[in-house]
Design brief:
Helix content: 55-70%
Shape: globular
Structural class: mainly alpha
Distance between the termini: 35 Å
Strand content: under 5%
Order of helices and strands: HHHHHHEEHHHHHHHHHHH
Number of helices: 17
CATH architecture: Up-down Bundle
Number of domains: 1
Number of strands: 2
Length: 512
Amino acid sequence: MAETKPATGLNRIFARKSVAQIMSENEKSELKRTLGPVNLVLLGIGCIIGAGIFVRTGNAAALHAGPAVMLSFVVAGLVCACAGLCYAELSSTLPVSGSAYTYSYTTLGEFAAWIMGALLLLEYGLAASVVAVGWSGYVVSLLGDFGLVIPPEFTGPMNHMTTLKDGTSLTTLFNVPAFLVTLVLAALLTLGISESSQVNNVIVAIKVTVILAFIIIGGYKVLTHLPELSQNWVPFIPPNESEGKFGLEGVFRAASIVFFAYIGFEAVSTAGQEAKDPKKDMPIGIIGSLLVCTILYMLVAAVLTLMVNYRDLNVPDPVAVAVDSMGSQWAWFAMTIKAGAIIGLTSVILVLMYGQTRIFYAMARDGLLPTIFSRVHPKFQTPWINTLLVGIIVAFAAGLFDINVLGDVTSVGTLAAFAIVCISVMWLRQSRPDLPRGFKVPFYPILPIFGILSCLGLIFTVEQKVLAFFAYFLIGAIVVYFVYGMWNSKLAKGEMILGHEPRAGDLPHKLD
């Protein structure tokens, strides 16, 4: 391990990993390079298709945009495209694992990397909780089709008033199915996941098939009953009722919600050390998966809001509500859709929790978190304590909190992380214009600047209580950095962590 002069004073928080060090870590990695562009696109699709289509679209339509949620997808897609192009440039320039955390450490410095790590806890950890709540909704609906009823008090967040199908109201206590599925998946990650790109491809195929079946069969139902169902689009943009509730303002508010639908695409960048030709393949994986999923999202939103009145979609399982509305003769189709959604959402929970453990592992390896987060189990060769902790956090968040609150906090954290990524691209362009870049953001610097401003703009459309929580979360993260991370950072103390990437068996292979 090479020694460098320790950073002092304010220089500690601006200490950066050099580009040469990052590239050296990449060269010394023993992770197998087995993922080509098709695998990376499927990897992105596998993570993106989840709560965005199956869960949050209904919330956005019912509470804020109505049928105009389709326009919200356009707004969110444009914002995400800017961030995606910035991710593509960074991943082609610094093709290493660690995603935005590593990018921030290399460009803006250690403090920014710490903040990014905190934001990724919201993006990966809380996102897994959101998906788990959606998973619970579909499981409850599917079991109900077979006459198996879970007491509704145990299928929703703590102290939440809900109205049942028979019109009665009750207060939910805890979302037991969401809690249990995250604990089970955390246990699987702890035991280790073997080679799984083929499994991922099968799961992606199932999810895409389910989505296409919903679009085609649901679209057929809409077209054959168009005079009747077209009334669900009248008016297409409901008149504004209050701040952020319908009207054009509601369209932008909904954009911050459906932005959640896109958060999976940057997971491709965590696979930098497993890509065969990262400079070429990773931009294809990021942009390709983003484009495919945007098209699918628009089509699903159109069919969904035509089949069911938008005011009935504020549920964790809106697609289930839509297929149930087709009538008893389509019961087989409804059950197929729900089963496919459950399979798809299960895979997304798994990969999001995996991503979170990967970030914690990297931060602990760098000294910013206690070494217990990087401790590898001697038998299973996984960061088991790290994984179990992530599982417990995700499980209790899914069991206790409302999906809309969880989703909004996730979106805010993700938007802030994306803004930092855009800033990182601009900093690296100025500080290291000599670096070879397999991909460059077009229309530079207009698109990165637009990405920063649009991310910040969507952040301030959410409710004040969510922004307040986000502010307290950041303050807490900053305190932890100055109390622990700043004094234990290996880089700031002059320890260059060269050749210390995880071995191939240290972490489970990626599974979506």
